[in-house]
Amino acid sequence: MQDTIVEKVLKHPKYAELVQRRTRVSMAFFAVALVIYSGFILTLAYMPEVFAQPLGPDWTMSVGVLTGILVVFSAVIMISLYVYFSNKIFDPLLDAIVRDVE
Amino acid sequence: MKKFLLNTALLSMIAQPAFAATGQANTSAIVMFLVFIAGTMVITWWAARKTQTTSDFYTAGGGITGFQNGLAIAGDYISAASFLGIAGMVYVSGFDGIIYAIGFLFGWPVVMFLVAERLRNLGRFNFADVTAFRLEQTPMRILAASASLLIIALYLIAQMVGAGKLIVLLFGLEYKIAVVIIGTLMMIYVFFGGMTATTWVQIIKAVLMLAGGTLLAALVLMAFNWNPDAMLAEAVKVHPSGAELMAPGAAVSSNPLNALSLGLALAFGTAGLPHILMRFFTVSSAKEARKSVIWASSFIGYFYLLTFIIGFGAIALLVRHPEFYNNLDLSAGSNNMLTALIGGTNMAAVHLSNAVGGSLLLGFLAAVTFATIVAVVAGLALAGAAAIAHDLYANVIARGRSTEKQEMRISKISTLVLGVLAVLLGIVFEDQNVAFMVGLAFAIAASANFPVLVLSISWRGCTTRGATIGGFLGLTFATLWVVLSKTVWVDVFGNAEPISPFPNPGIFSIPLAFFSIWFFSVTDKSARAVKERDAFTALTVRSQTGIGRSGAQDH
Description:
The complex is a heterodimer.
Chain A: H1 2-11, H2 13-46, H3 48-52, H4 63-101
Helix pairs in contact in A: 2-4
Chain B: H1 6-13, H2 27-50, H3 54-59, H4 66-77, H5 80-93, H6 95-105, H7 107-122, H8 127-131, H9 137-171, H10 175-223, H11 228-238, H12 250-254, H13 256-269, H14 274-277, H15 286-318, H16 336-339, H17 348-397, H18 404-428, H19 435-458, H20 464-483, H21 486-490, H22 506-522, H23 527-534, H24 536-545
Helix pairs in contact in B: 1-5, 1-19, 2-10, 2-17, 4-10, 4-15, 5-6, 5-15, 5-17, 6-13, 6-15, 7-13, 7-15, 7-24, 9-10, 9-17, 9-18, 9-19, 9-20, 10-15, 10-17, 10-18, 11-15, 13-19, 13-22, 15-17, 17-18, 19-20, 19-22, 20-22
């Protein structure tokens, strides 16, 4: 029983497309997240003077504090984009497969 | 004056061992706390009638929506440690507090892009279901349960000790009584209401915490005419570190590897924390799991931004209130505003609420903070009960031959045992430096659970032998490293010199775990390994589509 469902899914023309595209998208997002995060950590660890500079002559807020806030936003934005992709691209593919197989 | 070491920073996230004074009872705090308890008891009574099966007990029958689950996860995250600890760290060293917040937050993209949906499609009650999906039950369950129980114990100690100290200060209770109250409440929620009660307590608390934090941050910004930079300027003016407040501390740059290592453990630890992963099984589908992450990360990110405002606001505003300090001395070169704060720097946010909102806001935040700890402890106990009853008892000892009723009984007994254990640990470790425990919990989660979980679901070549050896190596290495580091070897055991060069193991233990899983998998030529690699196709079909998932929903 179980095997036949698995085989049916495997034979479905949209399955390979789903796996391939989804893997590519999530890996790309993961890579971007890693770059942003490690960029932040590496900068504060090895180039703290970059983060220490104030934003401008009349500012107290430093580059580091602003970057930190932007990094917080970036995490939420990346996750939102991923959800958007999933809803728009992957869910229709997935629904088609589930409909055909079950 | 930035002597604040990153590695000891976690200390201030929980409680400092010696709080200055026993506090006086705050009437509004006690009233609000009692109202909260009464409300949660009603919820527990309601949830108890719905909690019949193991699926109800562990995962609330899969009937939680993505939004609700997102709030509950945020509730687990917006713990007293995050709120008081990060605000306290910002109060002490400014920018360095932000580093922790970002580390905790970046666990979420990792969870989302690598595990969340597949986890939901593959598992039933906890993440061990996922690692044991195509690998052999017994070793995978034992590995998952050992790492999970260790993480839970460390977390429990940190929460109990932190909470106990907090209550001593806020409610004027004795420490032991405080710890017993938390343990008892937690046992009632979990024992009778299972995951349904635990989740709803967490949701309500998260909403209250978000509302309270928003109000506090708004009142702070209002005091500076809604200009955050004016607030920062004032903070820099009065803080002993001055402009350095805006930059990474000397401790970070003097040991960049340690900072890096900590950063790794924080970001990858989340995807290995058993009580967080367990929440993904309370929703009905992978789509809802995805929604949980977006809500959770939005609320957590928002709350951390509030915490930054609260922390910097505390620097700028608290010095105007000498009554919050033991003999405040603001002369140049004195760092007395950091050392003389009543109750320690963890109390910065609490004092701030009193300063800008009066005793009503103070009482509200104190009650919510206490509720937070009870809720987080309940979630931990539930994950612990799942590890004991579902992994060790049902699948290892009884080898899947136990009935649901038996498993349920064992999990309820486990809850009681864990509750008593939490109280005892809280009392035993009362005066211990609990800093290393949270750090170690994240390091173990990132070095044992995370690599095993990720490789077992995304790499065809992963075998039982590789996962078991790699997982245990990561677990052992991370634990030994922390034990031999300054935080334990010197500060706890009293040796002169640490053996590990710096306290955070992540930068070595995480790659070690990944490498050894790979190495011991590719060299595994057994028949079992061949079968496991073949089973990867079926796993992928299930993880990608959710077809064939044993439904946890009961509706």
